[in-house]
Amino acid sequence: MSVQTAFIIFGLVVLIAVALAAGRSRRSRQDRDINARIVSALNREFPLAGTFIDVKTFDGHVILGGTVREADQARGAEAIAVGVAGVHSVDNRITVRSGG
Question: Taxonomically, which superkingdom (predicted)?
Answer without folding.
Answer: Bacteria
